[in-house]
Amino acid sequence: MFFDNASTTIVDNSIMQTIYTINNNSYYNPGALYRGGRDVSKIISDVRNSIKKSLNFDGDVIFTGSATEANNMAIFGCANRRYKKVLLSEGEHPSVYNSMMELKLRGFDVEFVKLTKNGCVDEGDFIEKMTPDVGLVSIMYVSNETGAINNISALVGIAKKINKNVVFHCDGVQAVGKVLVDISSLGVDLFTLSAHKIHGLKGVGALLVRKGCKVKPLIFGGGQEGGLRSGTENVFGIVSLGMAVDNACKSLTENYDHVKMLKDKFVEKISSSNVDYQIFSPNDASAYIVSVGFKNCRAETLLNMLSDRGIYVGNGSACSAKKSGNRVLQAMGCSKEYVEGNLRFSFSKFNTIDEVVSLADNVVSVVNEYMYNASM
Ligand code: PLP
Which of 64, 140, 341, 353 is 20 to 30 A removed from 24 (C-alpha atoms)? Predict the structure, then answer.
């Protein structure tokens, strides 16, 4: 049973079938001038248009090799020496956090905006730190750790009022296809998405760039993607991203209601058990993610005990899961005795209520086994 859907998801069958068909009929290089090449190039531009339509966006869609790459492109491609101060929240994914750390080494003044105890960006602290010398802001839409949802349009409004030239980047990886995303009304300059969190292929993402926003390329070569990301396009990945966004946006409410029902059942079962736990996700978080801390347990041990029972769960971002401690939960002020036993349960449209009941029973059973062993 798979409950680590915030780290990746199974690819939709319809996507695999479409890719198979494209491979048989149109495997050409999209840069080739003959008709087959032009046809593939048209497939890519159709995907661009479909993503724009699904997310109500009117600028450029730059396909990348991952959301990590898109986040790097946003940060290194827009950091501007005229404004040496950059802001990010304490909740950002490692792909933003570590890019900003690199900017710091390159002489930028990097400041962190605090999180509230609910895991959202603290707007008061944002207002304090958003001074006129800030040139770049990066704040995620939905937290990959807790599912907490930031009020991006409000933060953009505040930032642009203080410096109309500020570039506002939003990592929307855990939002697209899961909660309603209307990029025009968010008002962001740059927005990141990923295919494999919503049943597309791994190794493909996109950076959406508002018209008029200048981004410098990180990769040079043949000039694909408007010169911003050279290299022969990952046609299968791009098609999968387009289909994944389209499918998820069309079934957004239906999928959300299903996942919410699963999450509520899980929480209800855990709360009626004898285990000592804290839920770190706020009540109004995305229902796709619930982060729970089990008192005086080691998360890795619980995770392995569940894994031995054929149940896969997460303990934070897969990119940083091997590092000790949890930077984001610590920033929220969660107490250490619960943080160390933190597991992240993340759902998908394919999980069933029976699976969730079994998940909860097994979680309670391994926590009790852990406590028993620890007391011996
Ligand atoms: N941003 C967030 C919020 C994520 O959850 C992830 C994946 O865990 C990423 C970025 C990185 O995505 P990718 O695996 O496509 O590089």
Answer: 64
